[in-house]
Amino acid sequence: MVKEEQKWTIESSASLFNLKLNEVWAYRDLLVLLVRRDFVSFYKQTILGPLWFFIQPLFTTIIFTFIFGNLAGISTDGLPKPLFYMAGITAWNYFADCLTKTSSVFKDNAAIFGKVYFPRLIMPLSIVVSNLVRFGVQMLLFLILMAYYYFAGANFSISWAICLFPLIVTLMALLGLGAGMIISAMTTKYRDLAFLISFGVQLLMYATTVIYPLSEAIKKYPAYAWIIEYNPMTPIIETFRYGFLGQGSFSWLSLGYATLVTIILMLLGTIVFNKVERNFVDTV
Amino acid sequence: MSNIAIKVENLSKAYQLGQIGTGTISRDLERWYARIRGKEDPFLRIGENNNQNTKSESNVVWSLKDIDFEIDQGDAVGIIGRNGAGKSTLLKILSKVTAPTTGKISGKGRIASLLEVGTGFHPELSGRENIFLNGAILGMRKKEIQRKLDEIVDFAGIERYLDTPVKRYSSGMYVRLAFAVAAHLESEILIVDEVLAVGDAEFQKKCLGKMGEVSKGEGRTVLFVSHNMLAIRSFCKKAIFLKNGKVEEVGNVTQIISSYLNRTDKHIISFENEDFIAESIEILNKNNFIVETITNGERLRIKVRIRTKVNNPNMGFCIALYNETQELVTCINTFHINSFISDLEIGTHEFIVPFQEYILNEGRYHISLHLNSRQGTLYEIIENCYSFTVLDDDVRRGGIYRGEWPGAISLVPEIKIESI
């Protein structure tokens, strides 16, 4: 017999804040399977397999070290250059991947979304989690590099702020998710933003302290440094560097600011996402 | 409310026609402005109905308009209607893929919908991995899939290939696997859209068998859309006939199917492209009268009127003749007269297709007209554009006709007797 709690209704409008988290929970197996799919299909039919996860950050680090470190001579706060850049790249990549993948979630999954219902939130969540796996692998590479420089006797030290690592990862994930959801909701009707996002993320990297320390930016461009300071990713990356390498501008105030921006973007993102998911199939 | 599985009240769904994107920002702003003043959406004018043939001033089309019906628990209900009647939209709303514009559906029990087979299959993953992924997308828990794995693999018949990526599967295996997953969903309500159009005849039978089992044996509610009237009749008890986004009739399946098939409102067909306009289709009797009933001893002619817009038009057509059970009796195409078609000049032309006497059996026939290019590229299918009845004149059979003769066609050939 059908239980009473299995009653449902479909209506033309729904409340904005109803996230249907209980539904998301009921579909948790799907989340796991989607993450697994992303991970497995990434290296199917490749020779190097999961090693590809290493190759991208490794080569980017080498190029950055050569161009920004040696050719342009940008300061790295006295840290070994590869270590400095890899810290920035690892953290930035996680945020950027979450943002770009989430922002095209409706477009990429239109075929599935158009044919079967499951809580749409599962898809962006699976993106954030599968990128977390990737981030984990890249963190491993970063830790190996740290160990190498430690034994080589380089000048850096781990600080107490390393305890903030879980918070930082959460902030990066939610920031990418929130902003990505807003953009994804808007791109279902207006494709323009999809073009903006790919090079926008690249430009944003230069407005974040990935290839230079914040202290250097303040010193050289005191008038414009506020752009970099108001970028919520800046305090996150600075805290990351401060925690792992002991150098970087850390302040509770700026980290609090980043947290606030993240929360606002997440709230806004979920509202917009919720509104759009009901009818996007008709316009995408 | 005790026995009702699905209750649909006042359901409507509007779609926007034309290009979406350019000009929508200004329209969105107008909409928003109307809303904050508490006015109605200026782009959703009530009263327009969904007729795909006529052009309308407004850009909005009501794919469904004020639909009301109830479905009892354990019923297998077929949804029939022409292309564009709103069948798929209704299923999409029921499966929560898209939200209705107005109205409400309430019900109880888990819904599993099968609008397509193999949604979310990833070509790189193995059969086993895809079973789990697809099952989860359809709403199954991992434990549930684990429990049914053997049954699914067995039904699909792919045991040897279970750990091979599905991109190496034959298309038949792919479809079998996909259907097998969906058929083993545990839900109180099952929604199926025309998925049986894929796969070979044997597998289609198997699927129908499984679906019959589901609705009769397990007492689940099934909603089924198909153009295959035989399939609908074989396992649906009830049917809903949709026409232009409205419920035309609800009731017993046999009755609804016959009223759907007999509903030929007009013989004017309209299809237009750069080369030609298809204008009408008619059946003529020996006296050149347009008729809907004819005896099998009469010479029947089908007349298709086409207006060409260019010299040497790239056109052709195929008259598909179906009998009452929607079985294709014959298909008459124009490929063999392509050389004549290429001689056609701008103007109106009537194509007259004569039928031999004593070839069609008694019964009701429906014509679907397929319009295509000279090479056979399909432009459009106009379904059920003409229906007619053939009566046995009882002459050739020597006056001993008693009721319907069995068989799809009724040949009365000259039989020679050679006594040795």
UniProtKB/TrEMBL annotation, chain A:
Transmembrane residue ranges: 51-71, 83-100, 121-151, 157-181, 193-214, 250-273
User: Keyword RNA-binding: yes or no?
Assistant: no
Span of domain ABC transmembrane type-2 = 48-276
- Which Pfam families does this one have? ABC2_membrane
Biological process annotations from GO: lipopolysaccharide transport
Annotated compartments: Cell inner membrane; Cell membrane
Keywords, in A-Z order = Cell inner membrane, Cell membrane, Membrane, Transmembrane, Transmembrane helix, Transport
What protein am I looking at?
Answer: Transport permease protein
TrEMBL record, chain B:
CDD domains cross-referenced by the UniProt entry? ABC_KpsT_Wzt, Wzt_C-like
Q: Which Gene3D superfamilies match?
A: abc- transporter (atp binding component) like domain, P-loop containing nucleotide triphosphate hydrolases
What residues does the ABC transporter domain cover? Answer: 44-269
SUPFAM superfamilies linked = P-loop containing nucleoside triphosphate hydrolases
Gene Ontology CC annotation, any one? membrane
**Protein origin, superkingdom:** Bacteria
Query: Which keywords accompany this UniProt record?
Result: ATP-binding, Nucleotide-binding, Transport
GO molecular function terms listed in the Swiss-Prot or TrEMBL record: ABC-type transporter activity; ATP binding; ATP hydrolysis activity
Could you say which protein family the record assigns here?
Belongs to the ABC transporter superfamily.
What this protein is called in its record is ABC transporter ATP-binding protein
Q: Which organism is it from?
A: Pedobacter zeae
